[in-house]
Every structure is written in C-alpha cells, then in structure tokens.
Amino acid sequence: MTSEKPDVAVVGPGAIGTTVAAALHEAGRTPRLYGRTPRERVELRVGPPGADERVEVPGPVLTDPDAVAGVVDLVFLAVKATQVDDAAPWLAALCGPGTVVCVLQNGVEQAATVGPHVPRGAVVPAVVWFPAWTQDDGVVHAPGEVRLTLPDVPAAGPVVDALRGTRCDVDVSPDFVTAAWRKLLQNAVAGLMALTGRRSAVFTRPDVADLALAYLGEGLAVARAEGARLDDDVPGRILALFQRPPGDQGTSILTDRDAGRPLEWAVRNGVVSRRGRAHGIPTPVSDLVVTLLAATSDGPG
Ligand SMILES: NC(=O)C1=CN([C@@H]2O[C@H](COP(=O)(O)OP(=O)(O)OC[C@H]3O[C@@H](n4cnc5c(N)ncnc54)[C@H](OP(=O)(O)O)[C@@H]3O)[C@@H](O)[C@H]2O)C=CC1
Ligand SMILES: CC(C)(CO)C(=O)C(=O)O
Predict the structure, then answer these.
(1) Residue ranges of the Ketopantoate reductase C-terminal domain (predicted)?
(2) Strand partners, 122
C-alpha cells in the first residue's frame, strides 16, 4: 500500500461488489467503480427486511478499460466466475507490480483462474460468507452481517487495512483451505435450489434432504483429500442451515437461473467431481448434479 488512503478499485459492482464498495465508501475510502453497465452511482440497502438504511456510492461506473487512469493499490474483483475472461482487460489496466487483487467469488480455484490475468501483482482469494442481491430497482440489498475470510498471506494485509473499521468484517485464517472448502460444500449443495427452481424450503423434503446428504458426503471426502479439516457432522450442519424456517433463503446460482444467466456450475459443483477424479474418489451424485446444472446453464431451449 503506497499511502494512508489506498487507491482502490471494484471491478464488477453487482451484489457483492456494491456491498464492499459501500463499506469502503462509508470509511472514506471510496473506490473507483468499473463494470459492464454504465451507472452514475451504485446503492446498497443494509439490514433485515423492513430496515431502510441506504449507502450511496458515487460513480460513475466506467465500462471501458481504456478509460482507466493508471494502476491502483487494491482491486476487488467481484464479477462472476463465468465473467473472469471478459473482465481481464480491467486487470491488465489496473494492475502494477504492487497491486493486490482480492477475488470476491465463490469456489476454491480463484488463484488458478484469475492469476493468469494478473501477471504483475498478487491474487488473494476471499471466502464471501454473506448473501446479497440486486433488487428490481437496481439497489443491492445485504440483509445481514458482511464478512470475508482471507488466507494468512502477506498480500492479505492491504485488504485487511482497506476494510479495517468498515461494516465488512475480515478474518484472516491460517487454515484457509478448510474455510474455503466448508463454504464450497454449502455452495455445491445450494445447486439443488437452481435445479429445482426453489428456495431453501426444498431441503425440508425428506428425499431432497437424503440426496443433499449423499452429495455433501462425497464433497466432504473430496474436501478432506484436498487438505480441508472438516468434521463428520459438517454435511448435517449445512443441511440444517438450509432447513431453517421460513425456508426463503436463496443463493446466487438460483438468482442466475431465474434471470436466465449462465451458471457458475464449474467452480461451485464441477470442482467436486474434478478434484474427486484427481484423488480417485468416486462422486456419482456430484457427476449427475454437474451434468444437470451444465445443461440448465445452456438453456432455455
Ligand atoms: N450474491 C451473493 O449472495 C453471493 C455471491 N458470491 C459470489 O460472488 C461473486 C459475485 O456474485 P454477485 O455479486 O452475486 O454477482 P452479480 O451478477 O450481482 O455481479 C457481477 C457484476 O459484474 C459485472 N460484470 C460482468 N461482466 C463484467 C466485465 N466484463 N467487466 C466488469 N464488470 C462486469 C456485472 O455487470 P452487469 O450489471 O452488467 O451484469 C455485475 O455488476 C460470484 O462468484 C458469486 O458466486 C458469494 C457469496 C454470496
Ligand atoms: C448465499 C450464499 C452465502 C450461500 O449460499 C452464497 O454463497 C451464494 O448465494 O452464492
């Protein structure tokens, strides 16, 4: 970090990017905004249903990477995993040797997918624990605690510094592999919501609950083979989380399906089958889920 007030950019000011941009702005560290849709500002609504606290982040949201003025200290990359290649020109324009790119994406492969687009600078993956979504009026709603986990590596330092004292809590984990796979298992099984077109209430069906546990059991075996230290009760705990009343929890992959957008099936689900094959672990349930999600992502028609 070159100064007290780092030069920060958010690439992909959607649900997660806007939430982090708002946290930075409230702390006086307003980021530059780079996106696909031009806008004068982005806006966050915080708190549970009924609450109406708003944070407006001044723009504009620039959409042409050629308009980037120069490299920055810190980039939060919050495009979907399916959009990383298209967002590469932003990274080329914004990254110098001292730039840190914090990847706000689901999955466990951010360093491998984003790294090739950041030949100068460092890539730090983040586990994004909080839900957020864009309302019909374009305002992003983040109803609960906003929290990230980062690996305990030197490049995490500028991210922690930038978010210190903001509404976005950051913890640094010495066992990031475990945190990342714990979240990945949650995301993988949430794929059943995208397949059924239903919110979390779908997990209260005994047959879906059994399927979810079988799927999570495969994922647990793969996660452990990857070095994650997860207890036997993790599948049951994840299922219980989704079975909580009132059953209206969503997931960003369901939002994408409802909007007819490509699904992040490869990084959220495909990875279980791929890493399973690499370790010689059979993943028949995962393979079936992946085929159906990939086909859903291609649709409709
Ligand atoms: N939403 C959630 O609750 C959670 C999401 N995540 C993960 O966070 C990541 C981001 O998800 P989310 O915020 O929901 O996604 P969104 O679709 O809400 O946001 C993505 C943003 O990136 C923009 N974008 C797309 N292509 C480009 C491009 N080439 N250059 C610049 N900007 C671009 C989109 O623009 P446009 O507005 O034009 O579409 C959009 O504003 C995903 O990996 C997701 O899995 C993790 C935890 C929770
Ligand atoms: C909501 C949450 C945090 C858990 O499924 C998520 O990661 C997503 O929607 O992608």
Answers:
(1) 175-295
(2) 100
The Cα 243–Cα 202 span in angstroms is 8
Q: What is the pLDDT of residues 135-175, one digit of tens each?
A: 999 999 999 999 999 999 999 999 999 999 999 999 999 99
Helix (H, G, I), strand (E, B) or coil at 135: coil
Cα 197 to ligand 1 centroid, rounded to whole Å: 20
In the chain, ranges of CATH 3.40.50.720 domains: 8-173
176-298 sits in which CATH class?
mainly alpha
52 — phi, psi (to 5°)? -135, 40
pLDDT in tens, 241-267: 999 999 999 999 999 999 999 999 999
> Domain 8-173 falls in which CATH fold?
Rossmann fold (3.40.50)
The complex scores an ipTM of 0.99
Q: Whose CA is nearest to atom 7 of ligand 1?
A: 105
Tell whether ligand 1 has an atom less than 6 A from the beta carbon of residue 125.
Answer: no
